[in-house]
Every structure is written in structure tokens, then in C-alpha cells.
């Protein structure tokens, strides 16, 4: 179900006055939409072919500051343009914005029109091609969690993000009564996303006061990543319109559950009809291919953790007894595990990676999971026996990196990632990770002031 309108339909809508604005958006390294708002008539006439943007958009930090030291874009090169090539299969109406359509763009070199290797969509496309060469497609689904707050973004800022009023005063995990009080926002989010061509399965309360989870129908990896970023962007825009705020921060409050983005993944035949992970006669009904795929993800989990947890804050989420994993192992339907087998005994059998937070970039996360899974297949790895019990209390299991610094340096040593993505691409994101750590290390935090201003 890519997009929900064709170019011909857009042309008709523009002529009738039904659509007057087209958003042409690329995805930045942080997984956010960046781009331009076009007068729809101009987009139909000309800009649907291509538009351009400054190449610093894939060489800056979350504050939109140009970061020195990138090879691909820097001051000595003058921060020139890159091409934003609309992928018209992603064209869709945006119901929460008046008379507006949106299209996602691939990012290409200004001179050669080749995909920029370090752009998130290109990184994922490269891994998808590896699957296609084998006659496979990867089906993915990411479950997004976020906090819904009875605050505006302005009021949250004025309070310095402390003592914020959540949409409910206590945990409403699965409780219908409490989530009914949040339904004004959640109903609109579900219905308007569905109208935008993003098929929503359900939403529910999560394990924090005012915390929500929304589940999108699984799709081929690129389409699922597209749905993910549009959903996050739209969730914030709808919240703003309703005088509310939402946060996808991995851990916005020490006392509350973190926000995850669990990623379900499996391989199917190219026509999407045959599940390649299901074998009713295999151990756990997981085929040899599925076992190798899972074994690769386990073997290389430390090396690709940064692609699931890209910020200093991401690692604050990995706390025992919080439903966030701390150990690298797999289990059968066990929520203390870093990887959980779901759908055992059915065609929907799949691995769920529970490491990622809601702050991840889905294109990078999906690409890393595919790369690790493919390494497991190519190396013909054997899958260890499933863990049974409370993984939080198991002392001998390998641990998820505890800090951004540890994850960064582990990624730097990864031969698997360099072979799959290319050394320049890995170096680009290593620079991103190290800059994030550098910026944090030189800042004075509220915690330091509280502890030390008078007492040191």
C-alpha cells in the first residue's frame, strides 16, 4: 500500500483546488523529514522531476548545526547542493494539513544523480538489493511508543521539561478506561494516519502514565521505514494542533518507563506469498534460514547497537526491570530478552528486536538488522538454544553496550558493517556518534549542578 495517490490524481486535485501544497521531503540522519513546501501547481508542472537542498542536511547534528569533520560535506567544499528526487510511489494526502500532499525523496549526488551512499534511504536500499538478489523480501514492522502530555511544546519548554502533566496520572497499560480519556488524540492519530495510506492496526496504553503505543501494519522494509517517519512527524504535528505535546525520547524521565521501538523482521519469497522462516518440522518451527538470520543478529548486536540507540540518552533506557532489554540473547515469548521469537508455529513467525528506542532512525536500524541477518546466513551460523528465565538476573549473558561511547567504539571495529555499508558510510556515522558524545561531554547537566553547586 505505498502512498495513497497517483501523480495523475494529484494533477486532478491541483486543478480542482483540492490540493494547493506539496511537501517534498528527504530524511535526515536523525530520521526527521526535511524539505520544501511547493505550490502544488509548480510541483506538478516542474518540481516533480527533482528539487535540491543543501548537502549539510546530512552533515549536521540534531540542533541543525553544521558539524566539522565530515568527508562528504564541509566548509572547504562549500556545502553545495544535493538532488532531492521525488519517489512518486510515496505520494500521499496528508489529512491533518489543509489541502496538502507529501512525497518522500531519494537523495542523490548533484552531478552524477547517483544515490548518496550515506543517505538513510540509500543505505537501506543497498541492503534490500542484497535480499532481492537472493529472491527474498524483508517484511518489517516497528512498534512506536511515545508519551502524550497535556502540555504544549511551549509550556514544556517553559517548565524546562520538568514536572510535566501527562495525559493520565497513572500507568494505563492496556487499560481501556484510562485510555478512553486519551482517545481524542489517539483516535485522530489512528484515523488520519490510515487516511494518509499508513494502515494502523491498533493503539494501546503502555507502561507509563500517558505513554502510548501505536502499531502499523507490517510492510516491505523500505515502505515500513517510510511509514515510520511520516507517523512520527504527523504525531507531533497533530499534537501541536490539539494543544498537546508528544515525546519519542528514549528516556525523558528517570522515574518512568522508556520509549521503545521494537522491530519485527522476517524473510519471504519475492512474491510475498511464502514465509521463509516457517518450518513446522524445525526446532521452534523456525527454519534453518531463520535460525541463521537470528544467529547473525545476535552475533553482531553489539556492533550495530548504535543504529538502534544513536544518542547519549538512548542508553538511559536500558534498565533492569523496565521491559527494556539489557542482555543480548533470544528467547521464546520472553519480554526480558533482547530478541524475542514471535508467531511460533505460524506463517507469521518472526524475530522481534527489542533493543531499539523510539529515537532511532528506521532506515538505519532496518539496514543494520538486514546486514547482520545476511552475515548470519552467509556464515551459516547456528542458533544457540533459547534462554529461559529472567534475563535481567542472568550474569553470564553478553550485555548490550551501556553507553554511547562503548557502542561507538564497538561499531568502529565492525568488519561486518564496513563490508555491508562501505567504510565511508560507517565512518560518516561514526563521526556523527562521536560528535554527539563530544557535545554531551562538554556540557554541564542539571544533575551536576544539583549535586555539586554547594556541596563540592
UniProtKB/TrEMBL annotation:
Coiled-coil regions, chain positions: none
SMART domains the UniProt entry points to: Gln-synt_C
Species this protein is from: Aquibium oceanicum
Membership in a protein family: Belongs to the glutamine synthetase family.
GO terms of biological process kind: biogenic amine catabolic process; biogenic amine metabolic process; glutamine biosynthetic process
PANTHER family for the chain: GAMMA-GLUTAMYLPUTRESCINE SYNTHETASE, TYPE-1 GLUTAMINE SYNTHETASE 2
Cofactor(s) essential for the protein: Mg(2+)
GS catalytic domain boundaries: 120-456
Keywords: ATP-binding, Ligase, Nitrogen fixation, Nucleotide-binding
Protein name as catalogued: Glutamine synthetase
InterPro entries associated with the record: Gln_synt_N, Gln_synt_N_sf, Gln_synth/guanido_kin_cat_dom, Gln_synth_cat_dom
Cited function: Catalyzes the ATP-dependent biosynthesis of glutamine from glutamate and ammonia.
Boundaries of every GS beta-grasp domain copy: 17-115
GO MF annotations, alphabetized: ATP binding; glutamine synthetase activity
Amino acid at each position: 500500500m505505498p502512498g495513497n495517490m497517483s501523480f495523475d490524481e494529484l494533477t486532478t486535485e491541483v486543478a480542482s483546488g483540492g490540493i494547493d501544497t506539496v511537501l517534498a521531503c528527504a530524511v535526515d540522519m536523525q530520521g526527521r523529514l526535511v524539505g520544501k513546501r511547493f505550490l502544488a501547481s509548480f510541483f506538478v508542472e516542474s518540481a516533480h522531476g527533482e528539487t535540491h537542498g543543501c548537502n549539510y542536511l546530512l552533515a549536521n547534528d540534531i540542533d541543525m548545526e553544521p558539524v566539522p569533520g565530515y568527508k562528504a560535506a564541509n566548509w572547504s567544499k562549500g556545502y553545495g547542493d544535493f538532488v532531492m528526487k521525488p519517489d512518486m510511489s510515496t505520494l500521499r494526502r496528508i489529512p491533518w494539513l489543509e489541502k496538502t500532499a507529501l512525497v518522500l525523496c531519494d537523495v542523490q549526488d548533484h552531478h552524477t544523480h547517483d544515490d548518496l551512499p550515506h543517505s538513510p534511504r540509500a543505505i537501506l536500499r543497498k541492503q534490500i538489493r542484497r535480499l532481492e538478489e537472493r529472491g527474498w523480501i524483508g517484511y518489517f514492522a516497528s512498534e512506536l511508543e511515545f508519551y502524550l502530555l497535556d502540555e504544549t511544546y511551549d509550556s514544556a519548554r517553559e517548565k524546562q521539561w520538568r514536572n510535566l502533566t501527562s495525559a493520565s496520572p497513572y500507568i494505563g497499560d492496556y487499560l481501556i478506561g484510562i485510555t478512553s480519556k486519551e482517545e481524542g488524540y489517539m483516535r485522530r492519530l489512528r484515523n488520519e494516519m490510515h487516511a494518509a495510506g499508513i494502515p494502523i492496526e491498533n493503539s494501546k496504553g503502555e507502561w507509563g502514565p500517558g505513554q502510548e503505543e501505536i502499531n502499523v501494519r507490517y510492510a516491505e522494509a523500505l515502505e515500513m521505514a517510510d511509514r515510520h517517519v511520516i507517523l512520527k512527524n504527523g504525531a507531533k504535528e497533530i499534537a501541536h494542533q490539539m494543544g498537546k505535546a508528544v515525546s519519542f525520547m528514549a528516556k525523558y524521565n528517570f522515574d518512568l518507563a522508556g520509549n521503545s521501538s521494537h522491530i519485527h523482521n522476517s524473510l519471504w519469497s519475492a512474491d510475498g506469498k511464502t514465509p521463509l522462516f516457517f518450518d513446522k518440522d524445525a526446532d521452534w518451527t523456525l527454519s534453518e534460514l531463520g535460525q541463521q538470520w537470528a544467529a547473525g543478529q545476535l552475533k553482531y548486536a553489539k556492533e550495530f547497537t548504535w543504529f538502534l540507540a544513536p544518542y547519549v540518552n538512548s542508553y538511559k533506557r536500558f534498565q533492569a526491570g523496565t521491559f527494556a532489554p539489557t542482555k543480548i540473547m533470544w528467547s521464546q515469548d520472553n519480554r526480558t530478552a533482547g530478541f524475542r521469537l514471535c508467531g511460533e508455529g505460524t506463517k507469521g513467525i518472526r524475530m522481534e528486536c527489542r533493543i531499539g528506542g523510539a529515537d532511532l532512525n528506521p532506515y538505519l536500524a532496518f539496514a543494520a538488522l538486514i546486514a547482520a541477518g545476511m552475515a548470519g546466513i552467509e556464515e551459516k551460523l547456528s542458533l544457540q538454544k533459547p534462554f529461559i528465565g529472567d534475563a535481567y538476573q542472568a550474569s553470564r549473558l553478553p550485555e548490550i553496550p551501556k553507553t554511547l561511547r562503548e557502542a561507538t567504539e564497538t561499531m568502529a571495529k565492525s568488519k561486518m558493517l564496513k563490508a555491508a555499508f562501505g567504510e565511508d558510510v560507517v565512518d560518516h556515522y561514526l563521526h556523527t556518534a562521536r560528535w554527539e558524545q563530544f557535545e554531551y561531554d562538554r556540557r554541564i547537566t542539571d544533575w551536576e549542578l544539583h549535586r555539586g553547586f554547594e556541596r563540592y
